[in-house]
Amino acid sequence: MEALERPQIICHVQQALNYTIHDVKWIPCSAKFVSLGGKSNGAGVVEIYSISGEGIEKVSEFGKKDHFKCGTFHASNLRDRHLATGDFSGRLQIWDLEDTLIPVYKTEKHKGVINAIDGVAGMTSGCGAPEIVTGCKDGSVMIWDVRQKDTPVATFRQSEGTQGRDCWSVAFGNSYNNEERVVAAGYDNGDIKIFDLKNMSVRWSKCVKNGVVSLQFDRKDIQMNKLVATTLESKIFCFDVRTQHP
């Protein structure tokens, strides 16, 4: 009886796949999701699944030459629902899931695996232009406006002559009007940095001593309030980023 009183996570349905899964994302306002990853021969795979009363059913799939590492729908509107992906070769690509022959946007400015990606303002109004942020193995964090071809609108990286730390996680926040916006980035050495996109500066930083595998603000379209970070060794940190105290 005590076990039943505690919160439980119950597996609704499961399915075995023949490739390594790196990311899974719900398709907004639908009963569908995408699975991103790659096969043992190095090829990348994106599969689209639909949930029904009988379980999950594969709707379609497409493959490319390199593993897909991460994806997001947050920079796309609800009409298009384009999927932005980062891959093992440092390519940022945006896909129309109805026609995946060629991406609707593509850039190759990163010099390593794109470990993390996030988007903002695709499904909301009054909080600035839709943008994408990518974090890379080379230590760089790049901000993209898809209306501007092949050139990031902002780049944050280590100073010249120093070895950049591997960026493992990124997240948008504080986008409550058309001017304010920040990006949080987490690194393999435990550093967490919040970059102010209005002033183009580091607004806050903290070291949690273990690699930061995930970051998330409580909401992207309000004044930043809480930031949750998860790290190696099963640790979770919650920061009050209004007063910027842990």
TrEMBL record:
InterPro entries: WD40/YVTN_repeat-like_dom_sf, WD40_repeat_dom_sf, WD40_rpt
Matching SUPFAM superfamilies: WD40 repeat-like
The keyword Repeat is annotated on this UniProt entry: yes
SMART domains: WD40
Gene3D superfamilies assigned to the protein according to its UniProt record, in alphabetical order: YVTN repeat-like/Quinoprotein amine dehydrogenase
Ranges occupied by WD repeats: 132-154
Keywords: Repeat, WD repeat
Keyword Coiled coil among UniProt keywords: no
Name of this protein: WD repeat-containing protein 92
Organism the protein comes from: Zophobas morio
